[in-house]
Amino acid sequence: MNIVSDPKAIPQSTLLSPEANQAAALATSTGVLTVDLDAIVANWRKLEKTAVPAECAGVVKANAYGCGTEPVARALAAAGCKTFFVATLDEAAAVRAAVPSATIYTLDGFFQNSGEAYARIDCRPVIGDLNELAEWDVFCRRTGWSGGAAIHIDTGMNRLGLTITEAQGIIPRINAGDHGITLVMSHLVSAEQLNSPINARQLTTFREIASVFSGVPASLSNSSGIFLGAQFQFDMVRPGAALYGVNPTPEADNPMQPVVELKARIVQFRNIERGETVGYGGTWTARRPTRLAIVSAGYADGYFRAASASDGTRGAEVIVAGKRCPVAGRISMDLMAVDVTDVPPNAARRGHMVTLLGEGITVDELAHHFGTIGYEVLTSLGSRYARVYKGGAATGTAEPPVAAP
Ligand SMILES: *Cc1c(COP(=O)(O)O)cnc(C)c1O
């Protein structure tokens, strides 16, 4: 295991061995986020098998969906992943540092004067607009840069991408050869809904336009798209969320392994009488003599206030000493209260960790309580937690937690 923690939080740790360092961080941190790199790799392998012979890329934007760009990119590369998608140039630079041989696409594309950065990092813009393409061409001609670019074609999302008519307009260029286009792609609107008629419409539109980009590899599917069938897989698939354990097939059981476990510390116990209320607004009333555990995680840590419990609404659940216990009252910024009346008094002590995510509490379950999707749960995970990486040993490049003195 290997820990990455804010070095400022534990300044003396620079003098400690990695093991002592981890122990120190765990002793001082109010929460611990464990990312299972082996599970991410297993998920990637499963997706790759499902999509073969299409290439399986890895989407690692937004700090690898909150899991840590560098350790995740390294673990995926060691498993055989060659192509990575990020949103921004800073993220591209992080992947380049972690995986020198990676092919990297930057989804937010090219904007004025970002050419030098594209060349320096050696990554490829995903171009979604004709002005952008023209500026990219100017940059490439002026500098002689020939690192390649993807063309994004809009087939229904109305977000990024050339219209079909615009895409048809650049076919002569494709036919002329030496065009510098290394991928043609589009993005699905409702891939997680198996029966959405939009899927088939986008497939038909994309198949037609991709077929005239002769010789250029094509890519349509995100995580959920992979499960829509082989015809959606083209030459490359681009899973993100499924790598990190989000269910890509919400209408069926989750085929992916859970990746993230989140624990936070019990900082106090208190006993209250029947009829007393808990937390801001006094929205939750004890219906019996109640024992509360006050846990050191709140909405500033990405545990959404929407998961609060009131007299009218059940909130999220937390696992205390192996038992599911309900949240009591409003989630506050740094803290939450949990009703532990049914946990034997000696099973949980002050200073013990409780489980907010893991041990059967899935990202998708939390998303339900948060009123959002698993994607937002992951990308909201707080920066105050100590981060522990499990597995990924095959990379042989587990980074030391803090620079050696
Ligand atoms: C984020 C993103 C993906 C990955 O989507 P998931 O649903 O997380 O698998 C793929 N393609 C594009 C264009 C994206 O923006």
Structural class: alpha/beta
Low-confidence stretches: 5-13, 394-405
Cα-atom radius of gyration:
24 Å
Tell me the CATH superfamily of the largest domain.
Alanine racemase
Report how far apart the termini are. 21 Å
CATH architecture title of the largest domain: Alpha-Beta Barrel
Number of domains: 2
Number of alpha- plus pi-helical segments: 13
- In the CATH scheme, the class of the largest domain would be Alpha Beta
Characterization of this structure:
- The protein is α/β, with parallel strands linked by helices.
- It has 2 domains: 37-244, Alanine racemase (TIM Barrel), CATH 3.20.20.10; 260-384, Lyase, Ornithine Decarboxylase, Chain A, domain 1 (Beta Barrel), CATH 2.40.37.10.
- Helices cover 29% and strands 21% of the residues.
- It has helices at residues 18-28, 37-51, 61-65, 69-79, 89-98, 115-121, 130-143, 164-169, 171-175, 197-212, 223-226, 363-370, 374-380; strands spanning 2-4, 31-36, 55-56, 58-59, 83-86, 103-106, 124-127, 149-152, 181-185, 218-219, 236-237, 260-272, 277-278, 284-285, 290-295, 317-320, 323-328, 336-339, 353-357, 386-390.
- The strands form 4 sheets. Strands 1, 2, 12, 15, 16, 17, 18, 19 and 20 form a 9-stranded mixed sheet that branches.
- Strand 6 (103-106), helix 6 and strand 7 form a beta-alpha-beta unit.
- Helix 4 (69-79) crosses helix 5.
- The chain is elongated.
- The two termini are 21 Å apart.
- Pyridoxal-5'-phosphate binds next to loops.
